[in-house]
Specification:
six-stranded mixed beta sheet; alpha/beta; Rossmann fold; 3 domains
Length: 469
Protein backbone atom coordinates (compact mmCIF):
# COMPACT_ATOMS: atom_id res chain seq x y z
CA UNK A 1 0.00 0.00 0.00
CA UNK A 2 1.50 3.38 -1.03
CA UNK A 3 2.06 6.08 1.53
CA UNK A 4 -0.45 8.94 1.64
CA UNK A 5 0.91 12.02 -0.06
CA UNK A 6 1.06 15.35 1.77
CA UNK A 7 -0.79 18.46 0.61
CA UNK A 8 2.48 20.29 0.07
CA UNK A 9 3.98 19.78 -3.38
CA UNK A 10 7.50 19.87 -4.78
CA UNK A 11 7.86 21.56 -8.18
CA UNK A 12 10.94 20.91 -10.33
CA UNK A 13 11.48 23.93 -12.57
CA UNK A 14 12.75 23.60 -16.13
CA UNK A 15 15.14 26.23 -17.48
CA UNK A 16 12.64 27.70 -19.92
CA UNK A 17 10.24 28.56 -17.07
CA UNK A 18 12.88 30.75 -15.38
CA UNK A 19 13.93 32.29 -18.70
CA UNK A 20 10.29 33.08 -19.44
CA UNK A 21 9.57 34.55 -15.97
CA UNK A 22 12.59 35.25 -13.70
CA UNK A 23 10.26 35.56 -10.70
CA UNK A 24 8.74 32.10 -11.26
CA UNK A 25 10.38 30.62 -8.14
CA UNK A 26 8.32 33.04 -6.01
CA UNK A 27 4.99 32.18 -7.64
CA UNK A 28 4.16 28.77 -6.12
CA UNK A 29 2.59 29.93 -2.83
CA UNK A 30 3.33 27.54 0.05
CA UNK A 31 4.85 24.79 -2.12
CA UNK A 32 8.56 23.95 -2.45
CA UNK A 33 10.76 24.51 -5.50
CA UNK A 34 13.62 22.33 -6.72
CA UNK A 35 16.21 23.51 -9.27
CA UNK A 36 18.43 20.78 -10.81
CA UNK A 37 22.12 21.44 -11.46
CA UNK A 38 21.49 21.10 -15.22
CA UNK A 39 19.14 24.10 -15.02
CA UNK A 40 21.92 26.18 -13.43
CA UNK A 41 24.25 25.12 -16.23
CA UNK A 42 21.74 26.16 -18.90
CA UNK A 43 21.15 29.49 -17.14
CA UNK A 44 24.89 30.12 -17.21
CA UNK A 45 25.01 29.37 -20.95
CA UNK A 46 22.05 31.70 -21.65
CA UNK A 47 23.29 34.74 -19.70
CA UNK A 48 25.51 36.19 -22.44
CA UNK A 49 24.14 38.89 -24.75
CA UNK A 50 21.60 41.72 -24.63
CA UNK A 51 18.48 39.76 -25.59
CA UNK A 52 15.44 39.44 -23.34
CA UNK A 53 16.36 35.81 -22.62
CA UNK A 54 19.88 36.81 -21.56
CA UNK A 55 18.54 39.54 -19.28
CA UNK A 56 16.11 37.09 -17.69
CA UNK A 57 18.92 34.56 -17.12
CA UNK A 58 21.01 37.20 -15.35
CA UNK A 59 18.02 38.26 -13.24
CA UNK A 60 17.46 34.66 -12.10
CA UNK A 61 21.14 34.45 -11.13
CA UNK A 62 20.80 37.64 -9.07
CA UNK A 63 17.74 36.28 -7.27
CA UNK A 64 19.58 33.05 -6.47
CA UNK A 65 22.64 34.97 -5.32
CA UNK A 66 20.50 37.05 -2.92
CA UNK A 67 18.87 33.90 -1.52
CA UNK A 68 22.22 32.13 -1.11
CA UNK A 69 23.90 35.12 0.53
CA UNK A 70 25.31 34.02 3.93
CA UNK A 71 23.71 30.55 3.56
CA UNK A 72 25.92 27.60 4.52
CA UNK A 73 25.87 24.04 3.15
CA UNK A 74 23.44 22.85 5.86
CA UNK A 75 20.96 25.64 5.09
CA UNK A 76 21.12 24.88 1.37
CA UNK A 77 20.41 21.17 1.94
CA UNK A 78 17.51 21.95 4.28
CA UNK A 79 16.03 24.39 1.76
CA UNK A 80 16.17 28.18 1.53
CA UNK A 81 13.13 30.06 2.79
CA UNK A 82 11.30 31.75 -0.10
CA UNK A 83 9.38 35.04 0.22
CA UNK A 84 5.66 34.85 -0.36
CA UNK A 85 4.44 35.39 -3.93
CA UNK A 86 4.82 38.97 -5.12
CA UNK A 87 6.75 41.07 -7.55
CA UNK A 88 10.08 39.37 -7.11
CA UNK A 89 11.88 39.57 -3.78
CA UNK A 90 9.50 40.79 -1.04
CA UNK A 91 9.74 41.31 2.69
CA UNK A 92 6.65 39.23 3.46
CA UNK A 93 6.92 36.20 5.78
CA UNK A 94 8.57 33.18 4.12
CA UNK A 95 6.33 30.56 2.55
CA UNK A 96 7.82 27.61 0.64
CA UNK A 97 11.43 26.51 0.38
CA UNK A 98 13.91 26.46 -2.48
CA UNK A 99 16.04 23.33 -2.89
CA UNK A 100 19.12 23.23 -5.12
CA UNK A 101 20.70 19.99 -6.31
CA UNK A 102 23.74 19.38 -4.08
CA UNK A 103 24.65 15.82 -5.08
CA UNK A 104 24.23 13.38 -7.92
CA UNK A 105 20.72 11.97 -8.24
CA UNK A 106 20.60 8.46 -9.70
CA UNK A 107 17.30 7.13 -10.97
CA UNK A 108 16.19 4.20 -13.09
CA UNK A 109 15.72 6.05 -16.38
CA UNK A 110 14.05 4.10 -19.22
CA UNK A 111 16.48 2.76 -21.83
CA UNK A 112 15.00 5.04 -24.48
CA UNK A 113 15.98 8.15 -22.47
CA UNK A 114 19.75 8.14 -21.92
CA UNK A 115 20.71 10.90 -19.50
CA UNK A 116 22.98 12.82 -21.87
CA UNK A 117 20.70 15.61 -23.07
CA UNK A 118 19.69 18.43 -20.69
CA UNK A 119 15.98 17.52 -20.90
CA UNK A 120 16.62 13.87 -20.09
CA UNK A 121 18.93 14.86 -17.23
CA UNK A 122 16.13 17.00 -15.74
CA UNK A 123 13.71 14.08 -16.21
CA UNK A 124 16.13 11.75 -14.44
CA UNK A 125 16.46 14.17 -11.52
CA UNK A 126 12.67 14.39 -11.22
CA UNK A 127 12.39 10.58 -11.22
CA UNK A 128 15.06 10.33 -8.52
CA UNK A 129 13.25 12.90 -6.34
CA UNK A 130 10.00 10.98 -6.67
CA UNK A 131 11.70 7.74 -5.64
CA UNK A 132 13.53 9.43 -2.76
CA UNK A 133 10.43 11.16 -1.37
CA UNK A 134 7.38 8.99 -2.16
CA UNK A 135 5.12 10.98 0.19
CA UNK A 136 5.61 14.18 -1.82
CA UNK A 137 3.76 15.08 -4.99
CA UNK A 138 6.73 15.80 -7.28
CA UNK A 139 5.77 17.70 -10.46
CA UNK A 140 7.93 18.88 -13.34
CA UNK A 141 7.03 22.39 -14.57
CA UNK A 142 8.09 23.19 -18.14
CA UNK A 143 7.07 25.39 -21.06
CA UNK A 144 8.43 22.70 -23.42
CA UNK A 145 5.50 20.62 -24.68
CA UNK A 146 7.74 17.75 -25.85
CA UNK A 147 9.42 17.48 -22.45
CA UNK A 148 6.01 17.33 -20.77
CA UNK A 149 4.98 14.58 -23.20
CA UNK A 150 8.12 12.54 -22.45
CA UNK A 151 7.57 13.03 -18.72
CA UNK A 152 4.03 11.72 -18.87
CA UNK A 153 5.10 8.77 -21.02
CA UNK A 154 7.50 7.58 -18.29
CA UNK A 155 4.98 8.31 -15.52
CA UNK A 156 6.24 11.69 -14.25
CA UNK A 157 3.67 14.35 -13.39
CA UNK A 158 4.25 17.42 -15.62
CA UNK A 159 2.49 20.77 -15.96
CA UNK A 160 2.78 23.98 -17.93
CA UNK A 161 3.62 27.24 -16.14
CA UNK A 162 0.27 28.97 -15.65
CA UNK A 163 1.13 32.02 -13.53
CA UNK A 164 1.33 34.35 -16.52
CA UNK A 165 -1.97 33.11 -17.96
CA UNK A 166 -4.31 36.09 -18.17
CA UNK A 167 -7.54 34.16 -18.77
CA UNK A 168 -8.67 30.56 -18.52
CA UNK A 169 -10.49 30.88 -21.86
CA UNK A 170 -9.54 33.33 -24.60
CA UNK A 171 -13.25 33.71 -25.42
CA UNK A 172 -13.58 35.63 -22.15
CA UNK A 173 -11.24 38.38 -23.38
CA UNK A 174 -12.74 41.87 -23.39
CA UNK A 175 -13.93 42.84 -26.89
CA UNK A 176 -14.64 46.54 -26.37
CA UNK A 177 -18.22 46.26 -27.65
CA UNK A 178 -21.57 45.23 -26.16
CA UNK A 179 -24.86 44.63 -27.94
CA UNK A 180 -27.85 46.08 -26.10
CA UNK A 181 -31.08 44.08 -25.74
CA UNK A 182 -33.95 44.98 -28.07
CA UNK A 183 -36.02 46.56 -25.27
CA UNK A 184 -33.12 48.42 -23.65
CA UNK A 185 -34.39 51.94 -24.32
CA UNK A 186 -37.96 51.10 -23.25
CA UNK A 187 -36.62 49.93 -19.88
CA UNK A 188 -34.95 53.27 -19.08
CA UNK A 189 -38.12 55.26 -18.49
CA UNK A 190 -37.58 58.55 -16.64
CA UNK A 191 -33.93 57.69 -15.94
CA UNK A 192 -33.00 58.62 -19.53
CA UNK A 193 -31.68 62.14 -20.09
CA UNK A 194 -30.27 63.57 -23.34
CA UNK A 195 -28.40 66.82 -24.09
CA UNK A 196 -25.86 68.36 -26.47
CA UNK A 197 -22.52 69.88 -25.55
CA UNK A 198 -19.73 71.07 -27.90
CA UNK A 199 -21.52 69.56 -30.92
CA UNK A 200 -21.64 66.17 -29.16
CA UNK A 201 -24.72 64.30 -28.00
CA UNK A 202 -24.71 62.81 -24.49
CA UNK A 203 -27.07 60.46 -22.68
CA UNK A 204 -27.44 59.85 -18.96
CA UNK A 205 -28.72 56.47 -17.75
CA UNK A 206 -28.98 54.68 -14.42
CA UNK A 207 -25.63 53.03 -13.64
CA UNK A 208 -27.48 50.12 -12.01
CA UNK A 209 -28.62 49.06 -15.50
CA UNK A 210 -25.01 48.11 -16.37
CA UNK A 211 -23.71 44.88 -14.89
CA UNK A 212 -20.11 45.65 -15.91
CA UNK A 213 -19.09 49.18 -16.82
CA UNK A 214 -15.87 49.71 -18.80
CA UNK A 215 -14.82 53.20 -19.90
CA UNK A 216 -14.81 53.74 -23.67
CA UNK A 217 -16.77 50.54 -24.32
CA UNK A 218 -19.05 50.80 -27.36
CA UNK A 219 -22.75 49.96 -27.05
CA UNK A 220 -25.02 49.31 -30.00
CA UNK A 221 -28.53 48.02 -30.60
CA UNK A 222 -29.90 45.49 -33.04
CA UNK A 223 -30.17 46.47 -36.70
CA UNK A 224 -27.88 48.37 -39.04
CA UNK A 225 -29.39 51.78 -38.20
CA UNK A 226 -29.28 51.32 -34.42
CA UNK A 227 -27.86 54.04 -32.18
CA UNK A 228 -24.13 53.59 -31.45
CA UNK A 229 -22.79 54.93 -28.16
CA UNK A 230 -19.54 54.96 -26.21
CA UNK A 231 -19.54 54.73 -22.40
CA UNK A 232 -17.58 57.67 -20.99
CA UNK A 233 -17.78 57.82 -17.19
CA UNK A 234 -19.87 57.22 -14.08
CA UNK A 235 -21.16 60.23 -12.16
CA UNK A 236 -22.75 59.04 -8.93
CA UNK A 237 -25.73 56.81 -9.78
CA UNK A 238 -25.58 57.77 -13.46
CA UNK A 239 -23.48 56.53 -16.38
CA UNK A 240 -22.69 59.07 -19.11
CA UNK A 241 -22.80 57.86 -22.72
CA UNK A 242 -21.72 59.76 -25.83
CA UNK A 243 -22.98 59.19 -29.35
CA UNK A 244 -20.20 57.68 -31.46
CA UNK A 245 -19.25 59.31 -34.76
CA UNK A 246 -20.06 57.16 -37.80
CA UNK A 247 -16.92 56.97 -39.94
CA UNK A 248 -18.69 54.85 -42.57
CA UNK A 249 -19.94 58.04 -44.26
CA UNK A 250 -17.72 59.83 -46.80
CA UNK A 251 -18.08 63.17 -44.98
CA UNK A 252 -16.16 61.67 -42.05
CA UNK A 253 -13.39 60.12 -44.17
CA UNK A 254 -10.02 59.81 -42.44
CA UNK A 255 -7.10 60.48 -44.82
CA UNK A 256 -9.36 59.44 -47.67
CA UNK A 257 -10.44 56.21 -45.93
CA UNK A 258 -13.90 55.33 -44.63
CA UNK A 259 -14.83 52.52 -42.26
CA UNK A 260 -16.38 49.47 -43.93
CA UNK A 261 -18.13 48.04 -40.88
CA UNK A 262 -19.26 48.92 -37.38
CA UNK A 263 -16.10 47.74 -35.59
CA UNK A 264 -13.84 49.74 -37.91
CA UNK A 265 -15.92 52.85 -37.18
CA UNK A 266 -15.55 52.19 -33.44
CA UNK A 267 -11.79 51.78 -33.88
CA UNK A 268 -11.51 55.16 -35.64
CA UNK A 269 -13.44 56.78 -32.78
CA UNK A 270 -10.73 55.56 -30.40
CA UNK A 271 -7.80 56.31 -32.69
CA UNK A 272 -8.90 59.92 -33.30
CA UNK A 273 -9.87 60.75 -29.71
CA UNK A 274 -7.13 62.96 -28.16
CA UNK A 275 -8.21 61.95 -24.64
CA UNK A 276 -7.44 58.28 -25.33
CA UNK A 277 -3.71 57.65 -25.09
CA UNK A 278 -3.62 53.86 -25.50
CA UNK A 279 -5.54 51.79 -28.06
CA UNK A 280 -5.44 48.04 -28.73
CA UNK A 281 -6.81 46.52 -31.93
CA UNK A 282 -7.31 42.76 -32.24
CA UNK A 283 -8.54 40.96 -35.31
CA UNK A 284 -7.89 38.30 -37.90
CA UNK A 285 -5.86 38.90 -41.06
CA UNK A 286 -7.44 41.50 -43.33
CA UNK A 287 -9.65 43.23 -40.76
CA UNK A 288 -7.80 46.54 -41.30
CA UNK A 289 -5.88 46.94 -38.03
CA UNK A 290 -2.68 48.45 -39.46
CA UNK A 291 -4.45 50.46 -42.17
CA UNK A 292 -6.81 52.13 -39.68
CA UNK A 293 -3.98 52.87 -37.26
CA UNK A 294 -1.86 54.48 -39.99
CA UNK A 295 -4.74 56.47 -41.52
CA UNK A 296 -5.67 57.92 -38.13
CA UNK A 297 -2.01 58.63 -37.37
CA UNK A 298 -1.43 60.47 -40.65
CA UNK A 299 -4.59 62.54 -40.22
CA UNK A 300 -3.44 63.64 -36.76
CA UNK A 301 0.20 64.23 -37.75
CA UNK A 302 -0.27 65.93 -41.11
CA UNK A 303 -3.66 67.66 -40.82
CA UNK A 304 -4.31 68.25 -37.12
CA UNK A 305 -0.61 68.64 -36.14
CA UNK A 306 -1.40 66.74 -32.94
CA UNK A 307 1.75 64.58 -33.10
CA UNK A 308 5.20 65.27 -34.51
CA UNK A 309 5.64 61.98 -36.33
CA UNK A 310 4.58 58.34 -36.51
CA UNK A 311 6.85 55.64 -35.11
CA UNK A 312 6.20 52.06 -36.22
CA UNK A 313 7.85 49.00 -34.69
CA UNK A 314 7.23 45.26 -34.48
CA UNK A 315 8.77 42.07 -33.16
CA UNK A 316 11.06 40.50 -35.79
CA UNK A 317 9.83 36.90 -35.71
CA UNK A 318 10.17 35.25 -39.17
CA UNK A 319 7.39 33.14 -40.66
CA UNK A 320 9.82 30.86 -42.45
CA UNK A 321 13.59 30.41 -42.36
CA UNK A 322 15.59 33.37 -41.07
CA UNK A 323 17.45 35.31 -43.78
CA UNK A 324 20.41 36.13 -41.53
CA UNK A 325 21.95 39.48 -40.67
CA UNK A 326 20.98 42.48 -42.77
CA UNK A 327 23.27 45.38 -43.70
CA UNK A 328 22.55 49.07 -43.32
CA UNK A 329 21.10 51.44 -40.75
CA UNK A 330 18.45 50.61 -38.16
CA UNK A 331 15.67 51.68 -40.52
CA UNK A 332 17.18 49.76 -43.47
CA UNK A 333 17.48 46.61 -41.34
CA UNK A 334 13.83 46.88 -40.31
CA UNK A 335 12.50 47.55 -43.83
CA UNK A 336 12.11 43.86 -44.83
CA UNK A 337 9.98 43.33 -41.72
CA UNK A 338 7.76 46.27 -42.57
CA UNK A 339 6.16 44.98 -45.75
CA UNK A 340 2.68 45.45 -44.23
CA UNK A 341 3.51 49.06 -43.42
CA UNK A 342 4.72 49.80 -46.95
CA UNK A 343 1.66 48.13 -48.48
CA UNK A 344 -0.65 50.27 -46.36
CA UNK A 345 1.28 53.46 -47.07
CA UNK A 346 0.86 52.78 -50.81
CA UNK A 347 -2.91 52.45 -50.32
CA UNK A 348 -3.07 55.66 -48.28
CA UNK A 349 -0.98 57.66 -50.77
CA UNK A 350 -3.25 56.55 -53.62
CA UNK A 351 -6.29 58.01 -51.85
CA UNK A 352 -4.87 61.53 -52.24
CA UNK A 353 -5.75 63.74 -55.20
CA UNK A 354 -3.35 65.43 -57.63
CA UNK A 355 -2.67 62.81 -60.24
CA UNK A 356 0.36 60.55 -60.45
CA UNK A 357 2.83 63.33 -59.57
CA UNK A 358 0.77 64.39 -56.57
CA UNK A 359 0.52 60.83 -55.30
CA UNK A 360 4.29 60.35 -55.68
CA UNK A 361 4.95 63.56 -53.74
CA UNK A 362 2.50 62.42 -51.05
CA UNK A 363 4.24 59.03 -50.80
CA UNK A 364 7.63 60.73 -50.27
CA UNK A 365 6.12 63.01 -47.65
CA UNK A 366 4.56 60.09 -45.81
CA UNK A 367 7.83 58.20 -45.68
CA UNK A 368 9.50 61.25 -44.10
CA UNK A 369 6.86 61.44 -41.38
CA UNK A 370 6.69 57.69 -40.69
CA UNK A 371 9.80 56.39 -38.89
CA UNK A 372 10.62 52.69 -38.51
CA UNK A 373 12.31 51.68 -35.27
CA UNK A 374 13.62 48.38 -33.93
CA UNK A 375 12.46 47.06 -30.55
CA UNK A 376 16.06 46.13 -29.79
CA UNK A 377 16.89 49.81 -29.19
CA UNK A 378 13.73 50.87 -27.33
CA UNK A 379 14.94 50.33 -23.77
CA UNK A 380 15.69 53.63 -22.02
CA UNK A 381 14.12 55.84 -24.70
CA UNK A 382 11.26 58.31 -24.21
CA UNK A 383 9.02 59.50 -27.06
CA UNK A 384 7.28 62.87 -26.68
CA UNK A 385 4.38 63.93 -28.92
CA UNK A 386 4.68 60.80 -31.05
CA UNK A 387 2.06 58.48 -32.50
CA UNK A 388 3.50 55.00 -31.85
CA UNK A 389 2.20 51.90 -33.63
CA UNK A 390 3.28 48.48 -32.30
CA UNK A 391 2.43 45.98 -35.02
CA UNK A 392 2.28 42.16 -34.60
CA UNK A 393 2.05 42.74 -30.83
CA UNK A 394 0.78 39.19 -30.23
CA UNK A 395 4.41 37.97 -30.36
CA UNK A 396 5.44 40.03 -27.33
CA UNK A 397 5.60 38.84 -23.74
CA UNK A 398 3.95 40.79 -20.93
CA UNK A 399 7.36 42.12 -19.84
CA UNK A 400 8.26 43.27 -23.35
CA UNK A 401 4.88 44.96 -23.69
CA UNK A 402 5.39 46.80 -20.40
CA UNK A 403 8.83 47.97 -21.56
CA UNK A 404 7.40 49.39 -24.80
CA UNK A 405 4.32 51.05 -23.30
CA UNK A 406 6.43 52.81 -20.66
CA UNK A 407 8.43 54.51 -23.46
CA UNK A 408 5.53 56.93 -24.04
CA UNK A 409 6.23 60.48 -22.96
CA UNK A 410 3.89 63.44 -22.59
CA UNK A 411 1.58 63.97 -25.56
CA UNK A 412 2.19 60.55 -27.12
CA UNK A 413 -0.30 57.88 -28.13
CA UNK A 414 0.35 54.15 -28.46
CA UNK A 415 -1.62 51.81 -30.73
CA UNK A 416 -1.06 48.04 -30.42
CA UNK A 417 -2.25 45.84 -33.31
CA UNK A 418 -2.21 42.06 -33.46
CA UNK A 419 -3.91 38.76 -34.12
CA UNK A 420 -3.63 36.36 -31.19
CA UNK A 421 -4.45 33.46 -33.51
CA UNK A 422 -1.08 34.01 -35.28
CA UNK A 423 1.50 33.74 -32.49
CA UNK A 424 4.96 32.78 -33.78
CA UNK A 425 6.97 33.15 -30.55
CA UNK A 426 7.88 29.92 -28.69
CA UNK A 427 6.30 29.43 -25.24
CA UNK A 428 3.55 32.02 -25.88
CA UNK A 429 -0.11 31.15 -26.36
CA UNK A 430 -3.35 33.07 -26.79
CA UNK A 431 -3.87 33.26 -23.03
CA UNK A 432 -0.26 34.23 -22.16
CA UNK A 433 0.52 36.71 -24.95
CA UNK A 434 1.54 40.20 -23.90
CA UNK A 435 -1.23 41.58 -26.12
CA UNK A 436 -3.86 39.60 -24.21
CA UNK A 437 -2.27 40.76 -20.96
CA UNK A 438 -2.35 44.44 -21.91
CA UNK A 439 -5.97 44.31 -23.16
CA UNK A 440 -7.12 42.79 -19.89
CA UNK A 441 -5.11 45.16 -17.66
CA UNK A 442 -6.08 48.39 -19.48
CA UNK A 443 -9.81 47.76 -19.93
CA UNK A 444 -10.71 49.76 -16.81
CA UNK A 445 -8.58 52.85 -17.54
CA UNK A 446 -10.46 55.97 -18.66
CA UNK A 447 -7.78 56.94 -21.22
CA UNK A 448 -7.57 53.63 -23.07
CA UNK A 449 -9.78 51.75 -25.48
CA UNK A 450 -9.99 48.38 -27.18
CA UNK A 451 -11.80 46.97 -30.20
CA UNK A 452 -11.85 43.42 -31.56
CA UNK A 453 -12.34 43.65 -35.32
CA UNK A 454 -14.45 40.78 -36.62
CA UNK A 455 -15.02 41.17 -40.36
CA UNK A 456 -12.27 40.79 -42.92
CA UNK A 457 -12.24 43.56 -45.52
CA UNK A 458 -9.05 42.78 -47.45
CA UNK A 459 -10.72 40.79 -50.24
CA UNK A 460 -13.26 38.04 -50.78
CA UNK A 461 -10.42 35.56 -51.23
CA UNK A 462 -8.65 36.52 -48.00
CA UNK A 463 -11.89 36.53 -46.02
CA UNK A 464 -12.83 33.07 -47.27
CA UNK A 465 -9.33 31.74 -46.52
CA UNK A 466 -9.49 33.04 -42.92
CA UNK A 467 -12.83 31.30 -42.36
CA UNK A 468 -12.15 27.98 -44.06
CA UNK A 469 -8.41 27.26 -43.88
Amino acid sequence: MSAAKSAKRLFVLDTNVLLHDPTAMFRFKEHDIYIPMMVLEELDAAKKGVSEVARNARQVSRFLDDLLDAADRTAIEQGLLLPSPGNGMTTQPPSGRLFLQTNEMNATVPMGLPGKTPDNSILGTTLALREKQPTLDVTLVSKDINLRIKARVIGVSAEDYYNDMVLDDINLLYTGTCELPADFWEQQGDDLKCWQEDAKTFYSLAAAKFEHFYPNEFLYGTGDDALELVARRIEGPKVILERARDYRHARHAVWGMTARNREQSFALNLLLDPEIEFVTLLGAAGTGKTLLALAAGLAQCMDLKRYREIIVTRETVPLGEDIGFLPGTEEEKMTPWMGALMDNLEVLSETQEGGEWGRAATADLLKNRVKIRSMSFMRGRTFFNRYIVIDEAQNLTAKQMRTLVTRAGSGSKIVCCGNIAQIDTPYLSETTSGLTYIVDRFKGWAHSGHITLKRGERSRLADYAVQHL
